[in-house]
Amino acid sequence: MSRLQRKVQFVLGLEDPPAKIARGFAIGMFVAASPFWGFHSLLALGLAILVRGNTAAAIAAAWTSNPLTAPPLYALCYLLGMKVLGRSGDAIDWSSFSMSSEGFHYLLGHLSDLLIPLITGCTIVGAVIGALSYYLMLRAVKRWRRPPAPVEA
After folding, report:
1. What distance in Å separates the CA atoms of residue 43 and residue 68, rounded to the nearest whole number?
2. Among the residues of 33-100, which ranges form H helices?
3. End-to-end alpha carbon distance in the chain
4. DSSP H/E element including 7
């Protein structure tokens, strides 16, 4: 059984009402889209407590974000944030950025030009993913707990 399958079975088998598990999972998926790496577990825990969701489901879902999924997700979120905020793509001159101390200082000088659209886009994407995952997880938990149909002989 794969790690993902074990994680899904863990969440589906939690001993809480389906809506509480789904709320926690949705919060975790919302947090997974956030750019605040290193704080995902803490954010998921706090928000799950706030909305009375299952904390274990929230943390498990928050861990779905990883170094392979983050770059394309954050690129999409940044572009979405730029569009929503009505900003043009020329706020940051990416040709001036390099992997040097000068490039790093240039990026620090334009941090708000980068972070505000990124956080805006991540909030929108996280809200959509969270809402969808709530309904999917609610349905999955209810189906998981449904007694098996009687076998006819």
Report:
1. 21
2. 40-50, 55-62, 70-85
3. 32
4. helix 3-12
**At 17, is the secondary structure helix, strand, or coil?**
coil
What pTM value is reported for the model? 0.83
Supply angle C-alpha 46, 42, 69, rounded to 5.
Answer: 120
pLDDT in tens, 2-61: 777 787 788 888 999 999 999 999 999 999 999 998 899 999 999 999 999 999 999 999
**What was the pLDDT predicted at 109?**
73
What the block records as the tokens of 90 is 């020329």
* Structural tokens at position 86: 């009505």
In degrees and rounded to multiples of 5, residue 37 shows phi and psi of -55, 140
Residue written as tokens 């399958």? 5
Task: Tell me the pLDDT tens digit for each residue of 88-110.
Answer: 766 666 665 566 677 667 767 77
Rounded CA separation 27/55 (Å): 9
